[in-house]
Amino acid sequence: MAESTGTGATERVADVLLLFTYGPPTLGVSRVSRELDLSKAVVHRILQSLSSRNLIAYDPDSREYRLGPAAAALGSRALRDSDLRAAALPYLAELRDRLHETVTISAKVHGGRVYLDQVVGNHEITMSVELGRRFPLHAGSSGKCMLAHSDPDEVDRMLAGELTALTPATPTDPEALRAELVEIRDRGYAASAGERQGDAGSVAVPVFGPGGLVGAVSVCGPRFRVTEEFVDATAPELIETADRITAQLGGTAPARAVPTSTGRTT
Fold this sequence. Notes:
This protein has helices at 9-19, 29-36, 40-52, 69-81, 83-99, 141-148, 152-160, 174-187, 228-249; strands at residues 56-59, 64-67, 102-109, 112-119, 134-135, 190-193, 200-209, 212-222. By secondary structure, the chain is of the alpha+beta class. α2 packs across α3. Mean pLDDT is 87; it is low at 1-7 and 259-266. Residues 70-251 form the IclR-ED domain.
């Protein structure tokens, strides 16, 4: 099991806490043990330690654990102090006012990405996203554009693992996804239709800081409005917005081809 391989106690605690950022709202000892390949005794000790500090809380009805108030406080502080969020917000509002669809900013995190903030569209029927929840990189435009610009070893590890289908449209063929990542790098943006959420479509562009990739900015809305024509028209504006955020952070945007067509799957 993982605890016998030399992985430090700090890493095990972090892995347990991160497991609560996606999936079901409550987790039991057996589920955590199975997901992280840790013994139940080790998991129980970690959960007790986190619970004593209110980072997680025990639910007596389900006999499982959920994130606690201290975790919520940490998340709120992280959002408030995020350089990426602060740099992006004025540009998100400008883009929403021009396109009238929801505009989001996501950050790359260990094992996926999280939405940091959004400026919701002003149509009568619009879309909003769940802030702070971790999503996989292979599903949806924000994740795919980050994955396309991730370290090749990280891409290989992800494609060698299980690509969970969040919807029937989620990419689950590793070789097809690898080919799509090449196209995304070349044209500078990713598009999706129903990959993370069945009735939604989106287009996204990566954002870079001084150390490289940090996140992605996206425009998203109901699938019936986010058509290929919408994506083709929106991509140049979104690229310009992402590059302005990158410049604000002191990063450098990669060279890319002039956007021509989505090449997306439906």
